[in-house]
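Q: What changes when adenosine-5'-diphosphate is included in the input?
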Amino acid sequence: MATLAEKVARPQIRQTQCFIGGKWVPAASGKTFDTIHPATEEVIAQVAEGDAKDIDLAVDAARAQFDGGEWSQMDARDRGALMHKLADLIEAEVDELAALETLDNGKPISDSRAADIPLVIDCLRYYAGWADKIQGKTIPIRGEYFCYTRREPVGVVGQIIPWNFPALMAAWKWGPALAAGCTIVMKPAEQTPLTCLRMARLAQKAGIPDGVINVVPGYGPTAGAALVAHPGVDKIAFTGEMSTAQIIQRSAAETMKRLTFELGGKSPNVIFADADLDAAAAGAHFALYFNQGQCCCAGSRLFVEDRVHDEMVDRLIQFNRDRKVGDPFDPETEQGPQVDQAQFDKILKYVDYGKADGADCVSGGKRHGDRGLFIEPTLFTNVTDEMRIATDEIFGPVLTVLKFSDIDEIIRRANNTNFGLAAGVWTRDVGKAHRFASKVRAGTVWVNCYDVFDAAAPFGGFKQSGLGRELGEAGLDAYTESKTVTMAL
Ligand code: ADP
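A: The predicted holo structure follows.
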């Protein structure tokens, strides 16, 4: 038996092929691609590089399973029981899955062990409970009729996910789809396919029927685009960049697919002078640097009321000095590497933009160490609203601090963005908190906290941050069609 330390230090990589119709198969082209460990840039596995052919096979398998009705018409409580079984199997290997996530993505093992994989389990259990609670309504229409609605599964769903929370994004998408009775073709991100493939194996072990979950690893413009264009797919659920969502929306228009999108953000996090400043400083640090700054809802525009600005900046600099950056397998590590070279280069380009645009880089600003894709926790002050570091999503450990002086001003400036995913506000004045929460155009508002997620609480974006909601009952609705049945009496 491997000890915990061994399991965490050397996770086994057991699944690297496409998972189609319950079979593990190489890509039809025979091609593979490398997945790397971002802390050392070593290749950890070659993974099947699926493309349009493999997507065709996977959609056929998902379609046959859906149309055959084994899953969609199974007693709903039995469907829920199989989802619970999957959650149990994931729980039984939580250490290995956390290690696999850290290996593939580079996130600290303390995060993948305490947050990512437990949240996967929680999400699957939450939606398992919904499976037998998806109900229609009876409707009193005019005349001698009996009218009712049914909520039916939307069908075959294509799910395309990013690399920042690979296992968790899979769970957010599998949970409601499985509960509703849909069948799935998932394309994980090319940077991080491994935990999704492992979870597919566990789904098979749990007894979820063949063809319900299919996974085709590969690249976006090939495998992803083929999934979006496929006429046998009823809905696409996508998390990633706005520019990719626009490509998907155009292509999906041809077949009128249902769409849900969870996209980027430049979320305002607002600290009023009357806040609990200790909690606000720690919360602002966490809101941006968690997950190496690779969160779509990162609190990346930090607005601090002018009276407490300098004091808050001092605290934030100290947090950055104390932050432990390094080997993600060290349980003490708080910040690992960025996921790949492209992200690493983009972040350092934005650091250059910040300096060129006249902001002050008062903390970090460089590569950390000389091996792996690490970046120092970076902080800019003297930032103005129109600078590129204040308008664009950087997706890295770069915090921009802006000053403000009153609530009307801050509501206007917080909303001065095309994004609308999340917002934070720190104050002891409940009136101010509610006023901000009601006026800010964002899908989630955190008051005196940040990044508090729960499978029961809907999440998604206003404006260009998304379409529809994930999680909660709203997330489930996005996987159902409403059917109205009217019968003459
Ligand atoms: P990120 O910058 O987070 O990688 P992307 O939008 O590029 O954001 O990628 C998110 C997911 O979308 C990945 O799984 C990627 O492979 C996929 N993807 C990228 N381009 C396309 C496309 N043209 N069609 C479908 N999926 C795509």
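Observations recorded in class: Residues 160-162, 187, 189-190, 219-221, 224-225, 228, 240-241, 244, 247-248 surround adenosine-5'-diphosphate (CB under 6 Å).
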